[in-house]
Amino acid sequence: MMRVIFIILLSLSCISLVLSTCEINNGHMSASGSCSGPIERSLLQFNSLDQTNNGCPTNKIRYGIDGVSSNPSECSECVPGTNGVSHPGTCKLNEYCSDSGTCTDLKNHPLYNVHCPDEKSTLGLNWCGSGLTCIAHLCSICQEGVIDYKTDGKMCVNGEWTRNRMDTKFTTPVSVFTFVIMLLLIFILLCQIKFQKIFRFIRDSIQKRNYKKSLKLKSLSKYQNTNGNSSPINNSNNNNNVNNIKND
Question: Distance between CA 245 and CA 103 in Å, rounded?
């Protein structure tokens, strides 16, 4: 009897999975097994923005004015009060979300480089607002040379956050000095290679010239040996030729 009940329940579950469709009802995704896989579920979310993104397009997000979350009424690219560090999914690094829901450069922040008493006020709010911090009584983006090891290793260079490793290489006098020494060593090595090529060229030219002279002397000596009965005039001319070759 128990076996029959188990088979019936198993059959009903299989039938329900076959009949179920991949869809979103009242903001809830259909049960596991009703979709082909995670890709279909992701596509379904994009095709059901009225339920999955509160009716906003894919490049917008719905928010409530001045933090009212019970009835969000506006669609914008970010939520006011956030920034690119705390919410990298909306704004870029070194950007903050303005009150109109627009990602704006932190250097255009109304409190950027404004004097501040401390990080937080007696109301529990940041004196400098979103994206800025009070450093040495000045609203700043970050503290120069600081590395954020807790998250993604970004570094503060020239008063801004950066993830570019090339920007972080030459931020101290030691790194600059090391780079200059490396360039100097490379220059010396290239000069040494160039001088070696010039020396080899001069050496090869001299050897080639001496070799040609030796060939001329050998040929002249061979000619004199084969013509031993030549006239004195010819012999004197040959001697003069030998002397001329030696002088060359």
Answer: 88
Q: Where are the domains of the chain?
A: 22-52, 55-107, 172-204
The number of CA neighbours under 13 Å toward the Cβ of 71 is 0
Looking at every residue in the chain, the average pLDDT score rounds to 76
Q: Is 33 left (phi over 0), alpha (psi -120 to 50) or beta?
A: left
In terms of Cα–Cα distance, which of 98, 58, 92, 71 is closest to 162? 92
| 105 or 6, higher pLDDT | 105
Instruction: Name the residue with higher pLDDT: 15 or 130.
Output: 130
Full-model pTM: 0.55
Other Cβ atoms closer than 10 A to 109: 21
Q: How far is CA 14 from CA 6, 10, 28, 37, 156, in A?
A: 12, 6, 21, 18, 57
Among residues 97, 62, 95, which one has the least CA distance to residue 82? 97
What pLDDT is attached to residue 190?
83
3-state secondary structure (DSSP) of residue 74? strand
C-alpha span between 80 and 101 (Å, rounded): 5
Residue type (1 letter), 12: L
What is the DSSP pairing of strand 24-25 with strand 155-157? unpaired
Which among 175, 153, 173, 174 has a CA at the least distance from the CA of 164? 153
15-64: pLDDT as tens digits: 444 445 787 777 677 777 778 888 888 888 777 777 777 778 888 888 87
Helices 232-247 and 173-226, packing angle to 10 deg: 180
Q: Which of 120, 133, 118, 74 is nearest to 99 (CA)?
A: 74
